[in-house]
């Protein structure tokens, strides 16, 4: 008995009228909690083996009018159910999405208490450490510290510095030009000389540190972004001996020991005469390594007496005033000081590297 009743129950569906099935569906639809349940309900009632299909199949042998009526009824209900499920799915999708948004909400304005601050835990970047030290040395000698923009025009980067139009320094391979062909990323901090002369009447002396940019192939001693510190002093009666005095003072302060230096003549359009000041490589003590390109000496300080054309472009009368200028490569200096053998580490932004440095 119990067997047959359970058997009966199982097949109850085709005793139910389309209307009863629809009611049942509506009740179940109210309980739906997620999209999976909705899809499940849809396949149960509207699928190939669902109760409506069973009813339609069972109509095979009934009169055509009955078939038509019940068939239409079934289809109307099915259409409604289809629509209802579609709406329900959309509604549930919105609900699920909103809930996910609420659960995964991140307050981007919240401060991270573990944030590594340059001054506190990670330490300053070695370039900043050395740059600040050198600024302090020059400030103590009465120099001003000036800043200049990264984006420059031809005038500030080349023309006012006596770099003629056909000079190889303007080569497209070295300079990052903007598409307008008028602006560029400064290739050296000598641009700050030009800004300094615009801002000041002589006598003056200032340094100008900062990033410079060159379209160069990178290797252990070349980067596309590197750092220079420009210096310029203009006054009456300035000579090479002033230049040598200030450079010697600078280097002995920076290295806090005696370093071997040599002066070679060097050509730069903005100075005359121009010099290359080299120091003996502190990494290999002159034996030759990748930093000094096996030369034992590192080009550290190009410098010279300011070219009269540069003074004139800066509205300074060269018969009245003279000056010296220099362009210190900060990265090389940092590499010497901290014994770093690859310049690419400096701009890589790797905290494991940066956090090793502490100011003296
Ligand atoms: N601006 C030059 C460069 O980037 C470096 C330089 C050389 C600067 C001689 C100077 C100088 O002030 O006198 O290659």
Q: Tell me how many strands there are.
A: 9
Bound molecules: 3,4-dihydroxyphenylalanine
Order of helices and strands: HHHHHHHEEHEHEEHEEEHEHH
**Radius of gyration from the alpha-carbon trace, in angstroms:** 40 Å
User: How much β-strand is present in the residues?
Assistant: 15-25%
Q: Give the tally of structural domains.
A: 2
Using the coordinates shown, work out and report the CATH topology of the largest domain: BirA Bifunctional Protein, domain 2
The helix count comes to 13
CATH hierarchy, class of the largest domain: Alpha Beta
Strand order of the largest sheet: 1-4-5-9-8-7-6
| Mean pLDDT figure | 88
Query: Which stretches are low in confidence, meaning pLDDT under 50 for 5 or more residues running?
Result: 1-14
CA(first)-CA(last) distance: 97 Å
> Largest sheet at a glance?
7 strands, mixed
Query: CATH homologous superfamily of the largest domain - what is it?
Result: Bira Bifunctional Protein, Domain 2
Share in helix: 40-55%
- CATH architecture assignment of the largest domain: 2-Layer Sandwich
**Which structural category do the helix and sheet elements fall into?**
alpha+beta
What best-fitting shape do the alpha-carbon axes yield? elongated
């Amino acid at each position: 008995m119990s067997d047959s009743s359970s058997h009966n129950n199982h097949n109850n569906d085709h005793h139910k009228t389309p209307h009863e099935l629809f009611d049942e569906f509506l009740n179940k639809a109210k309980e739906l909690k997620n999209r999976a349940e909705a899809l499940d309900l849809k396949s149960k009632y509207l699928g190939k083996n669902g109760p409506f299909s069973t009813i339609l199949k069972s109509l095979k042998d009934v009169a055509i009018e009955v078939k038509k009526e019940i068939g239409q009824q079934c289809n109307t209900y099915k259409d409604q159910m289809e629509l209802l499920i579609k709406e329900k799915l959309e509604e549930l999708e919105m609900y699920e999405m909103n809930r996910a948004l609420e659960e995964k909400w991140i307050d981007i304005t919240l401060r991270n208490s573990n944030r590594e601050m340059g001054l506190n835990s990670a330490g300053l970047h070695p370039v900043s450490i050395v740059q600040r030290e050198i600024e302090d040395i020059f400030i103590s000698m009465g120099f001003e510290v000036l800043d200049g923009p990264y984006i420059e025009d031809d005038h500030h980067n080349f023309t006012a510095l006596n770099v003629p139009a056909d000079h190889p320094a303007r080569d497209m391979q070295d300079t990052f030009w903007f598409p307008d062909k008028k602006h560029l990323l400064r290739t050296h901090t000598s641009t700050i000389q030009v800004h300094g002369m615009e801002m000041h009447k002589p006598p003056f002396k200032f340094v100008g540190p900062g990033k410079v940019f060159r379209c160069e192939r990178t290797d252990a001693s070349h980067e596309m972004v590197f750092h220079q510190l420009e210096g310029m002093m203009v006054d009456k009666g300035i000579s090479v001996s002033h230049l040598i005095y200030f450079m010697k003072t600078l280097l002995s302060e920076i290295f806090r020991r005696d370093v071997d230096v040599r002066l070679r003549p060097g050509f730069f359009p903005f100075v005359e005469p121009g010099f290359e000041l080299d120091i003996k490589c502190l990494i290999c003590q002159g034996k030759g390594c990748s930093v000094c390109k096996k030369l034992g000496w590192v080009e550290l300080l190009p410098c010279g007496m300011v070219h009269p054309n540069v003074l004139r472009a800066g509205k300074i009368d060269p018969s009245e005033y003279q000056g010296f200028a220099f362009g210190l490569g900060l990265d090389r200096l940092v590499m010497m000081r901290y014994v770093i053998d690859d310049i690419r580490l400096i701009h890589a932004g790797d905290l494991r590297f940066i956090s090793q440095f502490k100011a003296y």
